[in-house]
Amino acid sequence: MTSRQVAVAALACVLSLTTASSGDVIYVRCGLTTGENNGTSWNDAFQNLQDALDDATSGDQIWVKRGTCYPDVGTLVNDGDEGASFTLESGVEVYGGFVGTETELGFRPTPNPADPDTMTTLNGDIDQDDGGVAPEDDNTDHIVDGSTCDDTALLDGFHVTKGYVDESAGTWQNGAGLLVGTLTGGGVEGPVVRNCRFSYNRAERGGAAYNFWADTQFQRCHFVSNVAELHGGAVYTNGGDYASPVRGDALFIRCAFQWNEAQGTTSDNGGGAVLSGNCAPKFLNCKFLGNGVSGAGSVVRGGAVRVVAGEGEHGAAGEADGTLFANCEFVGNHGADLGGALDVDCNPGEGTSTVTVVNCSFSKNEADDKYGGIRNDRGTLVVKNTILWGNTDDDGSTTTEDAQLKDDGTGSITAAYDCIEGLSGFAGNNNTGGDPEFLGTPGPGQDSVWGTSDDDFGDLRLSSAEGSSAIDKADIESLPQDAYDLDGDGVTAEGLPLDLDEKPRRVDDPDTGNVGGETPPVVDMGAHEYFPDCNSNGIPDVCDISCGDEHGMCDVPGCGESYDCNSDGVPEECESYSIEAMNTCYTHGEAGVFCIDIVADAIEPRLGDLDTVEFEMDHCISEVVVAVSCAETTYSGTITPGPDGTSTFTVTFNPPLPDNDACKISLNAPVFEAVCLKKLEADVDQSGLVNSVDASTIKPYWGDDVDAQTFIYDVTNDGIINSVDSAAVQPRYSNTVGDCPQ
To answer: Is 605 exposed, middle or buried (0-12, 13-18, 19+ CB in 10 A)?
Structure first.
């Protein structure tokens, strides 16, 4: 029994516990030099991650504080051992990114793969002597090893960096950040890797991760600046030979691949970000940005991804049937040979290989030779609802249809509902050659070279104002099934409900005609769905107003929180305030700026210098902006309605508004139900006492039948507030303040 288990057992006896936990929480603070080093609390946390992994059993969770952990530190590993790895185990969940005070997993700040400071670092620089960001050849071979676990193993919240694997590693010269693979037994399921970042790792194949004969799942992971000497700059996933039980069908959801490189020093290389051999990975809501293939080897292809089956070292026989790219974006990727973004090369004699690309956007990808966008050679390629625009051949010199999409062999391409620059051979099938009108055009920056820090990846969302040819022109039936429940609603028997931005996929633009006259909602071409969003809250206007049906396109967080008082389909907070009403009764539902003029001597009986004016209004939106233009005042800002939909605000004049001085109060809101002057206050006799008049006695425009009310003021100047029957006086107010109920 370990020290941690002894401590837990002793505590259980003291507390007379009678039920066993389903698993323990093991705490880790790498580099800690105090405490009991037994993992029972943050104060007594294990001082390295290796000992926690050795101590854990199925059902346990390991919580690791932010900081840096090295794989060669631990009781059972040797200092400086390049072969040391953090080994994942089935049933054990390993979480990073903790601040170090959390008592529940839900209290952990969500790790952000774009920000390494929010994560725990697993660093392969075991000698801690790397001079820069690039790894050195004395670093650990595989920082994390997931070769013996299934999908109940979890790695969540870690930055995996500076692994370096070379020929000294023997058979596995691949996957410097993560190795998942086995040569026997029909493969493994592989772990789940979530909220992780892989950067500056280097290997022969799969600089960051090597997935051999395994079905590893990557969720919300970023792969940045990893290098493979041959292929798969970030990831190499391989399913083995067709005759074997086929695995390698890795899953990538909400992942980003940026500035990864496959150097392609020999033939049959490629895949600047990913090389897939004899397997069927799926990429949902992923970005491929600025990846590249370099080198002088022949057949160096696929600046972002290369899909291969039944070919070369990737397997003498095999298939890639079921490979899928959906809601993905490819920008600024570079191929040294063919296929600037995506290259598909599947030998049809070794099995069916259908690769599907649906609702993706390809722009500014380039090939030194030909086919800057997508190249297909053998196999079957299906491209639907996709935008291919601005991709180039010949080092950026041409943007023909071939530069966007080309079958370059004996395979076939089915292209439908696509936006293709230079459209010619693929004309028909509801394809268009019209400009998609991206919001921001990508560019390589001042150095004119993709794959460097000044890359501008643009904004490939669509512009309705510029007349995008891609809005409401795609095929809703082509959306793949939501097998992995991207929107978390528990419904998988539906088409993908979200776009790349995690916004509703099926949104109709009322200002754009639908393809073939289809009934809305239809979908847009490309990775991003256009939707009117007047208040820029990330929710379509129609969904701001109503959540619609359960599990429908508008059943999203934050829906139904806006009003549409005039039923024009536009949230009231977005209405234009062009009407300025001066001294006019306001009718229900009008919008604009409502101005009220107040002149101090227009009120009878004479109240003296005017101190305050109080208003009450009904309105059906969340807030009203109030502005005052007159003498100095202490009031400005916004007001919000109360539970009954009404609100009261007071304008205070400081100093008081003298006789004959005027003040304009502006109320800016989409809709007023009514605006009512409620009360006036002034120091009638200069006694220092502020007296008030019930404003309902002031006969405004809405009629003369006013019930007897009360004026309240200091009648006798003795400091006592007296009241008189309003029938004794005839006050008046010269302006109209709205159609208020009496």
So the answer is: middle
